[in-house]
Amino acid sequence: MGSEIISKDLKYFWHPCSQMKDYEIFPPITVEKARGSYLYTTDGEKIMDAISSWWCKSLGHSHPRIKKAVKRQIDNFEHIISANTCNRTLSELSERLCNICPGLDKVFYADNGSAAVEIALKMSLQYHKNMRNQRKTKFASFKNGYHGETILALSAGDCGIYSEPFRPIMTEFAKIAGIPYVSGKGDPKWNSMPELMWKKTEKQLDKLKDKLSAIIFEPIVQGAGGMKIYSPELLKKLRKWTIENNVHLIADEIMTGFGRTGKMLACEHAGITPDLACLSKGLTAGWAPMSAVLCGTPFYNAFYGDYSEGRAFLHSSTYCGYAIGAAAALETLKIFEEEKICEQVEKRSCEIRRILENVAAETGALRNIRSLGFIAAADIVDPHTGKPFEKDKRAGFEFFRIAMKNGAFLRPLGDTVYILPPLNTPPKVLDELSNIIIKSMKSL
Ligand SMILES: Cc1ncc(COP(=O)(O)O)c(C=O)c1O
Questions:
Q1: Is the pLDDT of residue 1 over 80?
Q2: How confident is the model at residue 2 (pLDDT cuts 50, 70, 90)?
Q3: For domain 2-62+341-442, which CATH number applies: 1.20.1250.20, 3.90.1150.10, 3.50.7.10, 2.60.450.10?
Q4: By CB atoms within 10 Å of each CB, which of 55, 190, 211, 263 scores lowest?
Q5: Ligand 1 mean position to 188 CA, how many Å?
């Protein structure tokens, strides 16, 4: 049964973020259903989704309450144009979203993370135009950042493998280099940034300040760049500098938002409010392609006026305010509040870190363990030498294949193994994950 599906799939479907030739030695798994932490295949296998399906299934698969809410919405309507209409689901969702971060009390919707990033950057640019800050037309972002795959989002990012072929049409973002990486909250450097490092960053920024419209960044955890964690001190310093220099801070909370780091928004670790925050992935708990950009009233007011003034933000997308996504997002927010998901994640984050610590102790094949909330990552090394494997050995890919055979879907980033399970994963499922990773590392 599975092989029939696979052959049709590989004949027609060009899979994302994949070298299709790899599928000849490592075919896709044929998923029939998904429940909680697990994917169930047509061949009767049960595979743990240890990365929450590209980081979005924050409450696991097929959550019964969200399923009910989505069904309720479908009974009314599944989608309507969101210009010149409103509805109960969306207005309640908007109110709740505008309460998750004091100071951010307006929301604009789109249908994926990259679109939210582009919208936030466009908004910043237009804000300065509307305010007659004519010179503010440039952006900066962080080295090693990732913000999505459309051209502007790729330009904001700094992951060469995704962007190399597109350089000729990408736009220039200044890349902020001094990032004070740490191993997590327990790191003595968690709350500090070397003064010299900040001075260098400040010098770089000072040169650009008159032209800079916004700085975009992933707060505290850089995801696709290798699950790297940095001190909140950098964001505190940047917040101060950007206020002094009339530059926007755009927090790309697409991966980190909705409790992933133990806070609703990862910016809370630094105690800062950005000018704009991009949300997606956990927004609907992975139920629908939906994203949102939050901003505050003073920012919004720069776009407000008579039509003839030309201040309006005229960005549109067909599925803006997608009703099924909105119903899922609204129920997700209710579950987060009632079940205190963020507090639970913060309390249980040591369980996630412990998994990789156990693997490192048992196998000697991991180093540089870092973790925050329900994210933990480490780099694969040769246990005999303690050094990374040659790139062409593709240790991460080999580990991925072995772990899949052993019952977990892990998909490392290069040779960086990471776990990012649903935020409500029961402890016994985490124990099972630990055993699978140890067994797989041992046979690598
Ligand atoms: C931080 C960050 N920004 C933006 C995106 C892009 O989101 P999407 O894949 O929905 O376009 C991602 C996706 O992984 C992300 O992690």
A1: no
A2: confident
A3: 3.90.1150.10
A4: 211
A5: 30
pLDDT band, residue 154 (cuts 50/70/90): very high
Atom of ligand 1 nearest to the CA of 280: 10
d(CA 116, CA 82): 16
pLDDT mean over 403-423? 98
Q: Which residues line ligand 1 (CB under 6 A)?
A: 112-114, 117, 146-148, 218, 223-224, 252, 254-255, 280
Q: Calculate mean pLDDT across residues 346-360.
A: 98
pLDDT over threshold 80, residue 382: yes
Nearest CA to ligand 1 atom 4: 147
Segment 328-336 shows an average pLDDT of 98
Place of tokens 């994302």: 16
**CA 195 / ligand 1 centre spacing (Å):** 31
Cα of 61 from ligand 1 centre, angstroms = 20
- Of 356, 353, 355, 358, nearest to 373 by C-alpha is 353
Beta carbons of 373 and 349 less than 8 angstroms apart: yes
CB atoms within 10 A of CB 300: 16
Q: Which of 54, 55, 121, 147 to mutate to test the pocket of ligand 1 (most atoms within 8 A of CB)?
A: 147
pLDDT of residue 375: 98
Ligand 1 binding pocket mutation candidate from 117, 227, 250, 254 (most atoms within 8 A of CB): 254
Distance 293 CA to ligand 1 centre (A): 13
DSSP state letter for 162: H
Distance 335 CA to ligand 1 centre (A): 23
Q: For residue 90, how far is its CA from the centre of ligand 1 (angstroms)?
A: 23
pTM of the model: 0.98
* Residues in contact with 377: Cβ distance below 8 Å, sequence separation at least 6, in sequence order: 226, 227, 356, 369, 370, 371, 416, 417, 418, 419
Atom of ligand 1 nearest to the CA of 115: 11
- Long-range CB pairs of 23-26 (<8 Å, 24+ gap) are 25/401, 26/397, 26/400, 26/401, 26/404
Q: 77-338 maps to which CATH number?
A: 3.40.640.10
The answer, yes or no, to whether residue 436 has pLDDT greater than 80, is: yes
Q: Where are the domains of the chain?
A: 2-62+341-442, 77-338
Q: Give mean pLDDT, residues 332-354.
A: 98
Looking at the CA of residue 291, tell me the nearest atom of ligand 1.
10
Task: Quote the radius of gyration of the chain (alpha carbons, Å).
Answer: 22
